[in-house]
Structures
1.
Amino acid sequence: MEQRIGSSSQPLEGAGFDPAFIPGLTPPVSGRTEDGEPEKEPEAGEDDETAPEPAETAEASPSEPAEDAEADGPVFEASDRRARMVADHRGVRLSLDDQECEFRWDEIGAVETETARFGKRYTVTVHTPDRRWYPIEIEAPARSHFKEWDEQLDAVLDAYFEEDAD
């Protein structure tokens, strides 16, 4: 009788084992190539023509307002001690504790809201076209906020979210 030494099971893949499995959940690793090796910085004697100009690498200061024509539109924001959701002209941003994810409007297939029958939990679920969904529960200060939040979120969805008319 022959026996194999070691595990015969394959390593598991998915969001439960690798947070980078879900796009947008973790920020990209900077300073690394696609192979996972650190990028090599040019030395003093190397050709500097490939180096980016300082004006190209400068980012806008957070204190300077962004020049967005749509920035004056409706905004929905709800948060509690752990969770936060913001929907505006850029898309939908969800955060829970120290985890964040951001969806542009073209990445969203549907947005669903649900209120708890008892209690003060307001659940917003973002569905993507590739059949994934991302729920977040926000505890409202009072159940009376549910109607107000629904109206604000509907205004944002009406302004920015376009469904495909197939």
Note: The first strand starts at residue 76 and ends at 79.
2.
Amino acid sequence: MTSLPRPTTDLSADEARRIALRAQGFLGAPDRRSGVRGVLRHLGAVQLDTISVLARSHELIPYARLGAVGRKAVDRAYWTDTHAFEYWSHAACILPIEEWPHFAFRRRAYRSRPHWNHELPEGAYDQVIKQLRAEGPLTATELGGAKKTSDWWDWSGAKVAVERALMYGEVVCVERRGWKRVYDLAERAVPAELLHDELDDAECLRRLVRLAGQSLGVGTRADIADYHRLKGEQVDAVIADSGLVPVTVEGWSKPAWADPAALATPPRGRHRTTLLSPFDSLVWERARTERIFGFTHRLEAYVPKPKRVYGYFAMPVLAGGRLVGRVDPAREGRTLVARQVTLDGARAVPSVAQALIEAASWVDCTDVRVERVDAPELREPLVRELTRALA
């Protein structure tokens, strides 16, 4: 095993936390001029998910950093003029179009994959490509049907074929329409200068490790691998040449690497107060969230209701650079309902109230109703704070 280089910098746990916050766009003045596209480029990946409570996760990500950005403007920023593409990164993610060449290693891996979950009917692949070439961007339904039955995973032959073509890179998802993927040929959707898979695996991996380090600010090997779902050995093979520098972090039991630009200046500025999507890249990895914030976070949407602790879509509340509580939200008409609220003591009440008021305004709600607070004695102070702010 190759010995690790000697760390060049020692960071306190607080310094590492602030570096991570700045790298994720939560510390310092937001870059409003570059807007949603700037957030996407800065993060390198914005995760998609089907759940929509206040809004879909890919809308919540820029909102958390920029404030009340128009929801329609979010989709326009991602998809207009081919600024982004959808592909498998941390999960299904929106990615900056300029990173298309750096996912060539994954497209090649999918092409050599020995087995798939779905059988590809003979001729279906060529038919999908032919139809897209003739008719332009289409959904799976328009290509011949998304599913054979009502079962979620029972895909039609056309759906199997177009998803296979998406993974191979011959087809691109160019937008989401009513949450359906809209597919087009990569040769039309990807700028010509980016289209060809000319980078070898090592070049791709070096770039993605570097991008993960920049987006995290500082992270362990596991943190960096998880960002774009690389294998640990893939990170090991390229990290020495990625431009990241080894550091030690107080309280971290594993070696860490940092973006040298993140170490160049102390992280200072105004902290954002906001609700976070459970799929936000600040908190999407549980072990890292616990290590940096001392905060246990778990999405419970897929947990049976009787076993939920914090609620269906509990959203962490960020304030003052800390995670100070959780809110499980819902909407009833023009009322934002906080079905369950968890507060990290009385000091968190004003921040949670502020986050709720701003979120309500963003989704055109004029009132906020609190149902349950885990610490019953904090319910009345929270309601009082909300009432004062809404008056």
Note: The mean pLDDT is 92.
3.
Amino acid sequence: MKDLQQTRGLLGAMPVSETLGSLIKGIELEKQGIQVYMLSVGEPDFDTPDFIKEACWKALQDGCTKYTVPAGIGELREACAEKFKSCGIDSTPSQIVVTPGGKFACSAAITALCGPGDEVILPVPYWVSHLHMINAAGAKPVLVPTTPENNFELTEEDMQKYVNERTRLVVLCSPSNPTGTVYRKESLKMIGRYAVEKNFMVLSDEVYELLTYDEDRPHVSIASLSPEINEHTITINSFSKSYAMTGWRVGYLTAPQWLSSKIDALQTHFVANVTTFAQYGALEALKRGTGECMKMKEVFAARRDRFCNMLSAIPGLKIIHPSGAFYVFADISAFGLGSMEFCDRLMDEAYIAAAPGCGFGADQFVRFSYACSDEVLEKAAAGLAAFCAKLLNEKR
């Protein structure tokens, strides 16, 4: 008799995200009345601005509860195209696909472009879901180690070594989840040149685009570097992080017309359209949200500096100063534990939730989020210091 529980499909073989364990455990502890310091969640602690909520509520009142075209309402696609143009990316509304979150934008683009026999270059550390999206498409992920000494960027030597005739796509995430690093313009130019010369696409995940903090490390969209590179690039963005709209599930992308049409068709069959009234909230975010985003950015910049100073003072913990997003990627190799064991013990003994680096392909690291209050960061840093001191004593 056949075993129905034996997975046969590519999508059915996906594992649970490695970064969810601490979050789930933390929620259970909080239900028991225990104070848990949630440094594992990639979510702003700010509420969605009221004017965005009001636009959504007005759309509901106006009866905007029916289907839209799968790629999104026309006004929003026009606004997204203008947004990309403001970053130097030539785009038209017909190239825009509004998606249920930036995550689906990435997965739809990879699935529409790649399949069995294709290779996808993925720098390590990677965002946890990018790897599983590549596997689900049936393509081969080519994992390329990067180093903090080189800003966790792909090098020309990497491109020479790993690009071949089967290379279909290179995935970039800048500002990066999990490292918080921002790709330098020179590195993007080099990758773009290879994309054009070797004829592969680049998926540029830019959902943290507005959250960069250092003048010498501004965000640059690789598609803005030349018309030829733009023709080889899928640019992904989202309202989740920059506008504190994680639960709204609205993302968007631009790609060459031949590919955006394929992504649009895929979305048509998988999800139809993004929730109609949520699209009107997203439209208002693009119209009026820059000021609120800048306020949030200033808070995150101050938290980053304060939190990094606290972590830098903890013996055994080595950090890479992030230029964007809201994460600190900490090297824990001095403690002799794998990242999962480190995070499990950190939760059990100090009630601090962190994301294990093994989920990002980097088991010697742990990701901490500073998208939480100053009070939480201070108490968590104190608990983390005591925990790390205990681990060092155990090694002696």
Note: The radius of gyration is 21 Å.
4.
Amino acid sequence: MTGLFVTLEGGEGAGKSTQARLLAARLERDGHAVLLTREPGGSPGAERLRALLLAGDHGLGLGSEILLHVAARMDHLERTILPALEAGQIVICDRFGDSTLAYQGYGMADGDPAVLAFIHGVAAVAYRAPDLTLLLDMPRTLARDRLIARGDPTDRYERLDEAFHQRVAAGFRAIAAAEPDRVVTVDGSLPQDTVLDRLLDSIRARLVP
């Protein structure tokens, strides 16, 4: 039995984590076995790398930072995601490989073709692609207001300037345009229940009857 691997992507404040929890709860209520996980993290080793990547200035160059994300992802896959898929579960993952492409490739490297090719090349040999990616897209001004209202401590990426976040948003849209069969874009500014229903519709359409 093979499960379904679903990832949620989007910029800061888009509502990914909230929707991931709501999706998992609704799918479980429908009788599905669901694993809810996140990146960076999702396994003991990857969670340790998460602390290094998000907490502060790790002193690494861009290439090393990319590979650190990949290392965390590989451990997450081997120890958490693949066993759940092999058991027939639906895996709901808050961020995955597209975030590395958007944040490091488009945000930090400003879409440098060499960096994008490097990330694509590593991804092709290092990890399994999602079956479905749900991209929450919304105006940056609304996302920023949500973050301010939330009042949580900010991580290293959230503290970067507005131009960086605009490049990340453009990167996610480029990814969606390049892979329309895998990536479904949903307007994250809609009411929470409406967003949830649209995400659920996309997942249910991929489930084997």
Note: The chain has a mean pLDDT of 92.
